[in-house]
Amino acid sequence: MNSTFISDTIRQALTQAGLQRGSQSGGIDIHRVIDDALAAAGLSPGGSAIAPRFNDAPPTVPKAHGPQRPAALPGEFVWKRHTGPHGSRQYRLYVPTTKQPGRKLPLVLMLHGCKQHPDDFAAGTRMNALAERHGFLVAYPAQTQRANGSNCWNWFEPSQQQRSGAEPSLLTGIVDDIHAAHPVDRNKVFVAGLSAGAAMAVILGQTHPDVFAAVGAHSGLPQGSAHDVASAFAAMQARGPQRPSRGGRRAVRTMVIHGDADTTVNAMNGAAIAGQAVQAFTQSGVGLEAQPAARFERGGRQCTATSFCDELGIPLVEEWVVHGGGHAWSGGDPAGSYTDRAGPDASAEFVRFFLGADAALPIVGEDGPG
């Protein structure tokens, strides 16, 4: 059953129910919600709901959201290609001018969401500016439309939730290529993503804890929450049981950011990611203490942040809820798609969580950040 048939069937059912395109319910455009949900599951018209075919084709710019060029910065921002046993993927790499001779650099892998592209994601997150400021490398892998019709990472496929999966192997292969060409600090390699990219970032933290020191999940889903297209839709709306990952969960530092008004991926998924991360530390013998929830205003939105710290007071898991935030990168630049100018700067907060004191950014405390 192809994606066009699925999406057309849903739209016909809505029309028959008297819900024409543009119909509103509680101020929400119902068809727009359905379109976003189809895209997040990789099922926009023309997409594929079958196993992906890996190839060497260059990334195709999604028609719905063409990429914007990120702001000009003094560092080098170039296209690269990784090729391995599972095929190849292109990626954008930003190399800061602030690097110091003899100093190994942290690396942040940024995974775009559905209907996005590396340039688009770089523009919307402004992560390159933070890389220039703090001196780290940042890479933006590009999913291909042949692998997924909506440029989604295939987070819902069981084969992609394993260490041997094609997409996890390609993404970690990109890390290896960058390490071969640049002085990467292998103890400071991080991964963050939005939506389907966040779901894949969580998977990478579980399948490759030896590669990634921490995970940043924005509007994402936990590993094992889906195993096919139908369960992907259920998971996005926080329905249905979650399947535990094989071999138990790995303890990996994790930061979650999720808007509680997200109608595409229910915020309960963000809470599940954080809860599973805390549980994994507990099972590994590292007890975490939940700090009093910090409530504060940031960028015109109210936020609640909860830190789970080890015995030294170091936050190993953080969960941020952006009240009124939708399915978009919080504090992002409107030059990119799926961004919300309001709210905390998600990019800065992920960097602060990843690098800690190295980032010279505020740490969440009982009275709120800063």
Notes on the structure:
This protein is an alpha/beta fold. The protein has one domain: Alpha/Beta hydrolase fold, catalytic domain (Rossmann fold, 3-Layer(aba) Sandwich). The chain has nine helices and 15 strands. The strands form three sheets. Strands 3, 4, 5, 6, 7, 8, 9, 10, 11, 12 and 13 form an eleven-stranded mixed sheet that branches. Strands 1-2 form a two-stranded antiparallel sheet. A two-stranded parallel sheet has the order 14-15. Strand 11 (294-298) and strand 12 (301-309) form a beta hairpin. Helix 1 runs antiparallel to helix 2 (30-40). It is globular and about 40 Å long. Mean pLDDT is 84; it is low at 1-6, 13-21, 44-66 and 360-370.
Question: What is the compact description of this entry?
Answer:
This is PHB depolymerase family esterase. It is built from nine helices and 15 strands.
Uncertain stretches of 5 or more adjacent residues:
1-6, 13-21, 44-66, 360-370
- Known CATH architecture: 3-Layer(aba) Sandwich
Q: What order do the helices and strands follow?
A: HEEHEEEHHEHEHEHEHEEEEEEH
CA(first)-CA(last) distance: 51 Å
Query: What sort of overall outline do the alpha carbons produce when their principal axes are compared?
Result: globular
Number of strands: 15
Largest sheet: 11 strands, mixed
- What is the residue-mean pLDDT, rounded to a whole number? 84
Helix count equals: 9
